[in-house]
Design goal:
The chain contains 7 helices and 11 strands. Strand 10 and strand 11 form a beta hairpin.
Length: about 200
């Protein structure tokens, strides 16, 4: 049980680590974890990003997956102090090995991504339909309840949203969080209908 989010951290096209959160796979929760991680990276920009994330998360109980110690010792040529080993899976578990990252991705219910090189991130934790017609078709084919308020006019006047599902520069991350507001449904610039989700 949980609401499992995995954030992959990339340098260029390579995933250098993943960070697993046990209770953060919601639209707002994913943005909050992205903000924490980008703050850590901004505060320690001269350090290796993986090392910075492990050290930053360890201050709140997160850190390196203990099963990664041998891999890190082999890859980095040194052991990791006990202070940097995770003790609270809700504060972020870092994996670097292909096996560790694959294991966490298999458990994930929501996904987000950070690119260290171009300083952008993407929140992919939401439900999306290319149009309200596609959404209605899906609801009807699955015998879901269609809200009577979901009229064509309702979708025409939905609150617009810019950043959800798009690359957000780190310095616009607060704007992306604020634009969610207290709403649970939005329309993106490309016309896609987006709904808040909790996995």
């Amino acid at each position: 049980m949980g609401s499992r989010l995995v954030v992959d951290v990339r340098k260029g096209s390579k995933i250098v680590c993943t960070v697993y959160y046990h209770w953060s796979a919601s639209t707002a929760g994913a943005y909050e974890e992205l903000r924490k991680l980008t703050n850590i990276l901004e505060e320690d920009e001269y350090c290796d990003p993986v090392d910075a994330i492990i050290r930053g998360l360890s201050k709140r109980g997160g850190g390196l997956d203990p099963n990664e110690r041998d891999f890190v010792k082999s890859a980095w040529g040194r052991d990791v102090a006990d202070d940097f080993i995770v003790c609270d899976r809700s504060e972020g578990i870092v994996n670097l090995s292909p096996e560790g990252m694959s294991d966490k991705l298999a458990w994930a219910e929501g996904f987000a991504s950070i690119n260290v090189d171009d300083k952008t991130c993407i929140n992919n934790v939401f439900d999306e339909y290319s149009s309200w017609q596609e959404m209605k078709e899906l609801y009807e084919s699955n015998d879901y309840d269609w809200d009577p308020e979901w009229t064509p006019e309702h979708f025409e006047t939905m609150k617009g949203i810019r950043w959800l599902g798009e690359e957000v520069p780190w310095n616009y991350l607060n704007d992306a969080i604020q634009e969610l507001g207290n709403d649970f449904e939005w329309k993106r610039r490309d016309g896609a209908i987006c709904f808040y989700t909790t996995m």
